[in-house]
């Protein structure tokens, strides 16, 4: 039995998670909870300080979960790369954004790996969790690791496991969401599966790193394309004079062969607007044009414009120009009940409304302040809602008091069907996507 396998089985393996964000911190908590001495390594010193004080900055991880792990010594934060040398398993969870040209930006993985290289030693398992294009682990990461002289498959173990965490999801967490695992060799897969099975309920091995990378991109491309389709259905329903939400709800009664997706003001978050571009970029290098991805991207990216035009039309009906109108954007997080504004379509809607001369404010109980166009906006209180010419509901947070907002607002553009219960009573002032 290999040393690593023994250490996994008796829980003496040391785990270092590189990048303690939305993905890395929940992972570190599960690993520590399973009994592994775990270090959350991050270049953000403020995050490390908070971890070591037992304070969580990730809403899904409560202090009461984190603090006992820190107190018991099972989990700690570190920003000194020396911790990597004593690790048996290293899990990389750093961001993988897009460049301005929409090409993959994998520089943070390369930087993190560069930091790891001086501490790499025989017997270690490295698992990449950051979303990448098919081939990255095999073509780029393996080469970078092997610059040390160590060889993957001969002493060094390397695998890719796509992360599926859904922030704010109270049903499916890191632990009970099945995890796909593809190693560079069958032994790499076996060891990585053994480790993950200690704290993830269901680990699903696949034949290679490339396959595991593609699984993630299929999942998120599936979402992006279906959201693109339903956004286009919303545009079609508007032309046909039909209620999109009624159509989707009725179609969703079909017990097979249909899965409802809902329109909205555009894609947001770190994954759905980003990941399909990783796939289409890779395919371009193989002289293939990923047409569904491009088309869905075009439709989804156009939704903030659609929202602004609907609002302008609704104001026009009331003989008000957009210019000079006071507009309150309700909800700026990219999805309900979270504080994350990365890639949020609210940023585009605010920018477009301002470009047309509207006076835009926002209210979001999860987002105290917001940077847009080099300016900081702060969340405004809801009390004076009647003083706005229009309210644009972009994120349907559960905590909003929809009946009161509907009663007090002058005009509401509802992009999420959040006011479905109020629509009949306030048909004259609620406009939907
Ligand atoms: N957030 C999600 O919902 C989600 C879901 C599935 C997959 N993913 C993928 O997981 C990866 C991580 O995303 P995230 O949301 O956790 O990002 P995040 O921004 O929340 O966290 C990343 C952390 O990495 C740190 N970091 C950056 N460079 C580093 C370095 N060189 N060394 C150490 N730490 C470094 C940052 O300081 C940050 O704390 C991305 O590839 C993302 O696409 C995210």
Topology:
Blueprint: H1 3-9, E1 14-18, H2 24-33, E2 37-41, H3 45-52, H4 63-71, E3 75-78, E4 89-92, H5 107-116, E5 125-128, H6 136-146, E6 151-152, E7 155-160, E8 179-183, H7 186-196, E9 203-205, H8 209-240, H9 244-251, H10 275-285, H11 291-301, H12 303-317, E10 326-330, H13 345-355, E11 359-363, E12 369-372, E13 375-378, E14 390-393, H14 402-408, E15 412-414, E16 430-432
Parallel strand pairs: 1-2, 1-4, 2-3, 4-5, 5-7, 6-7, 8-9, 10-11, 10-14, 14-15, 15-16
Antiparallel strand pairs: 7-8, 12-13
Short description:
By secondary structure, this protein is an alpha/beta fold. Helix content is 37%, strand content 15%. The chain has two domains: 3-207, NAD(P)-binding Rossmann-like Domain (Rossmann fold); 229-432, 3-Layer(aba) Sandwich (Rossmann fold), CATH 3.40.50.
Main sheet characteristics: 9 strands, mixed
Q: Domains counted in the coordinates: how many? A: 2
Q: What spatial form do the alpha-carbon principal axes imply?
A: elongated
Tell me the Rg in angstroms. Answer: 24 Å
Stretches where pLDDT is under 50 for at least 5 consecutive residues are none
Q: Which class best fits the helix and strand makeup?
A: alpha/beta
Using the coordinates shown, work out and report the CATH topology of the largest domain.
Rossmann fold
The CATH class of the largest domain, by name, is: Alpha Beta
The helix count comes to 14
CATH-level-2 architecture of the largest domain: 3-Layer(aba) Sandwich
Helix content: 25-40%
- Element-by-element helix/strand order: HEHEHHEEHEHEEEHEHHHHHEHEEEEHEE
Percent of residues in beta strands?
15-25%
Assembly of the depicted chains? single chain
CATH homologous superfamily annotation of the largest domain = NAD(P)-binding Rossmann-like Domain
In angstroms, what separates the terminal alpha carbons?
60 Å
The unique ligands bound to this protein are:
nicotinamide-adenine-dinucleotide
